[in-house]
Amino acid sequence: MFSTSLHQASATSSHPLAPYGWDAGWDAEFAPYAEQGLLPCRVVRVDRGQADVVTPDGTVRADTALVTPHDPMRVVCTGDWAALEPEGSPRLIRTLLPRRTAFVRSTSSKRSEGQILAANVDHAIIAVSLAAELDLGRIERFLALAWESGATPLVVLTKADLVPDATGLSYLVEDVETTAPGVQVIAVSSETGDGVDVLAAVVSSGTSVLLGASGAGKSTLANALHGADAMEVQAIRDVDGKGRHTTTTRNLLVLPGGGVLIDTPGLRGVGLWDSESGVGQVFSEIGELARDCRFHDCGHVSEPGCAVLAAVEDGTLHERRLDSWRKLIRENERIVAKTDARLRGEIRRDWKQKHAEGRANHAAKRGGRIR
């Protein structure tokens, strides 16, 4: 059995798609399609219903029309593995292989649909520029989506050369580490090269996706990791540290030191999408404190015996963290309620109960008189 496993590992490592992340697991998933004469491919770019895909024979243009276009969660996206027709111009993507992970955010649509930004990702790199004041709440939001995706998040503080002294940089890193418990935080400078080697070592295996706002330095960082000007870079505005959307599509690049990188356009909106467990991991200390609350369903608002409020009171937990947790929990409940009728009903009943309790308390304070 050992020799068989060794043979399989050797076969997949020599596969033409191995540099793009092909492994024994994908080989097994694709076996039924190989019997049909289809070709394996990985999506490296999607644009207006067509995709650039890399096959064992090279990169070709493919049509995505056959892949359930009416389901936004099944739309072809960068990072997908698929089965491709061997002939045609353009080729047809027959089906997608099951995704191992998917980075999903909610869209601005009133239907609250999810939008997949990248698929089959191992590392979610959240790029944050030090050219502007840190927005810790935004970092927490990205982290919640990253944890929910199934990928391992990593926060990269870019443009570290703009911080005037090492002590100041150390404080900024510590602030983010407190905001991102259990997550590696790396300060890098694409100008000086500081920290780039550390990041390159992290992303040298598996697939990584670069995420962040416009002007965060994602394309510059992609070029630093790639060792060439793979992505066009434009100057940011001095007034607010924001940049233009240099990257307009999600592009998959093979890194010379190993690993695959997906660069993405700057994200203005980062809405949660059914991210309860992701939020829980970002605010793990609140979950741990809640175990000591008097009531198991404590909402950490004004309940007696609340261990979370006690931690805020004694300084163990920063009030900003609790406010941010409340905001993301409420947002996630709203998103889920729009697509889950049962939960929507529960939230409505809970609201009515709290409203009735509030009226009763108000009446008691006024001596039983309700106007």
* Largest β-sheet summary: 6 strands, mixed
Order of helices and strands: HHEEEEEEEEHEHEHEHEEHHHHH
Mean pLDDT level? 82
Shape: globular
Alpha-beta classification: alpha/beta
β-strand number: 13
Structure notes:
The protein is α/β, with parallel strands linked by helices and about 375 residues long. The chain contains 11 helices and 13 strands. Strands 10-9-8-11-13-12 form a 6-stranded mixed β-sheet, sandwiched between helices. Strands 1-2-3-5-4 form a 5-stranded mixed β-barrel. A hairpin with a 7-residue loop joins strand 6 (about 100-105) and strand 7 (about 115-120). The protein starts with a helix and ends in a 6-residue tail after the last helix.
Outline of the structure:
By secondary structure, the chain is α/β, with parallel strands linked by helices. 36% of the residues lie in helices and 20% in strands. The protein is globular and about 70 Å long.
Summarize this structure as a short list of keywords or feature phrases.
371 residues, OB fold (Dihydrolipoamide Acetyltransferase, E2P), Rossmann fold, Ribonucleotide Reductase Protein R1, domain 1, six-stranded mixed sheet, five-stranded mixed barrel, disordered N terminus
Q: What secondary-structure arrangement, pairings included, does this model have?
A:
Elements (H helix, E strand, L loop, with lengths): L1 H12 L10 H11 L4 E9 L2 E6 L2 E6 L17 E4 L6 E6 L5 E5 L7 E6 L3 E7 L6 H14 L2 E7 L7 H14 L4 E4 L8 H7 L4 E5 L6 H9 L24 E4 L5 E4 L12 H7 L1 H7 L16 H7 L5 H21 L1 H25 L6
Parallel strand pairs: 3-5, 8-9, 8-11, 9-10, 11-13
Antiparallel strand pairs: 1-2, 1-4, 2-3, 4-5, 6-7, 12-13
